[in-house]
């Protein structure tokens, strides 16, 4: 009987140990499942972060391309501006040299014009105030100037109208006896075309109202 009691106690202890082990294994299983779930969530978050990082890398590359293109545009604009400034400087320098040569064409740069019988005394500088006109071409070939018996440069145009044109060249302003006189303006436009005075022609065309009545 004593031996049977001992065996029973041993079996009971073993059963208790097995129950404890089962409880431990059950908790361990729950922990492993929780860890597996956390790992899955972590993996999903990591994948999303990787996708976001990849998209940012692509955006960064796109921004680099845009910045490169923008830099190329800026460099081209700078080059064009530099070339334009250089051309303007060269044209200005060339024009200044031409005007100096023209001013030396006559004593003191003065000249007397005989325009259709009307005599006008002015300066080469005044007549060549604008580029690429009849007068710059006229005085740049001084050896071919047509002069009358008094030594005046002869121009076979309307002498009365030339007085208005000369005043414009002197002052830069168009002064008309009557700005509403369309026939006068038309006649002056014809003269402006002949003398290649583009700004004067522009004013006379009525596109820019800067007329003044005297």
TrEMBL record:
InterPro entries, per database record: BACURD1-3 (IPR045068), BTB/POZ_dom (IPR000210), SKP1/BTB/POZ_sf (IPR011333), T1-type_BTB (IPR003131)
Pfam families attached to this UniProt entry: BTB_2
Domain BTB span(s) in chain numbering: 109-178
Gene3D superfamilies according to UniProt: Potassium Channel Kv1.1, Chain A (3.30.710.10)
CDD domains: BTB_POZ_KCTD-like
PROSITE patterns xref list: BTB
Any one of the GO BP annotations: protein homooligomerization
Domain of life: Eukaryota
UniProt-recorded name of the protein: BTB domain-containing protein
